[in-house]
Give the backbone structure.
Amino acid sequence: MKPFLSLLFIAGAIGLLWGIAFPQWNQVVALRDEARTLENVVEEGDEAIAFMNELLERRNKISEAHLQKLARLVPSGPAKESALLELDGLAARSGIRLASLNFSTTDETTRRRAGESVAVTRGELKELGENFTLLGSYEGFRAFLRTLENNIRLTDLDAITFSSSDKNFFQFTLQAQSYYMDH
């Protein structure tokens, strides 16, 4: 009878261990896994904060003059007024005249380029379509193109058409895009 009772107590202890301790052990293991996961998340967050601080430190080392050049290269917002003044100034320095200038938004540019599969916006960079007409000589137009090419504001020319009503007097029509950051 003693061996039977001993076996019964051992079986009861095993059952008790299996029924109570084993589920608790599973919870402990699950909590350890969750703690490791949370430690990894905290570590990744610390790495992200360190990277952000490094970027801020690098940004703060950029001189104000360079930041102003960057703002002119890709302005914050469409900056239509400055684009108008800039194109008019480039034309005047080249000895030709800006006769007209029309702007189109990114959506209108997208509709105009409906046949293209390239996305117009990438991230926060957007296009400002510019359609303008210049009046003057061919040499003045070539000088305008050189100054536009060397201008700080990024501008892509899509199309150029021209017509002449006089011997050395032309009407040049250009389709172009400049870019801006949409914040």
In short: Residues 72-181 form a domain with the Alpha-Beta Plaits fold (CATH 3.30.70.60). The helical segments are 2-60, 64-73, 80-94, 106-112, 138-150.
